[in-house]
Amino acid sequence: MKPFVNHWRYDDGWHDIPVLLRKQDGVTREYREEIKGWHCWVYPSSDIDFENWMEMNMKGEYDCTFRFNSGNPMYTVLITDDEDATLFKLTWM
């Protein structure tokens, strides 16, 4: 059984600065390298070692963090490499 992948999206790294944090220079956006890439939430099935699959198959930089969402085990995933994102999408979605 495949894990359930939710909220798949690409972020180009540009981030709107909240109004309360803006300075007088008029800048409303900033570039943040650490958020550039493909993001998603993964709810794993019990028969798949998802972290091991990520480690074995991702060639570029990625982040796979285990968390709980309302008591449900899940991973938040950030993939920075185009080819890795394609492999992930073809495998799990």
What does this molecule look like?
This protein is α+β, with helices and mostly antiparallel strands and 93 residues long. The protein has one domain. It has a four-stranded antiparallel β-sheet with strand order 1-4-6-5, covered by helices on one side. A two-stranded antiparallel sheet has the order 2-3.
Summed up:
It is elongated, with a radius of gyration of 16 Å.
Task: Give the overall shape.
Answer: elongated
Low-confidence parts: none
Question: How many E-type strands?
Answer: 6
Name the average pLDDT. 93
Domain module tally: 1
How far is the first residue's CA from the last residue's CA?
12 Å
Spatial strand sequence of the major β-sheet = 1-4-6-5
Rg value:
16 Å
Helix content: 10-25%
Number of helices: 2
The biggest beta sheet is recorded as: 4 strands, antiparallel
Order of helices and strands: EEEEHEEH
Percentage of residues in strands: 35-45%
Structural class: alpha+beta
Topology overview:
Blueprint: E1 4-11, E2 14-16, E3 29-31, E4 37-43, H1 50-57, E5 62-69, E6 72-79, H2 82-92
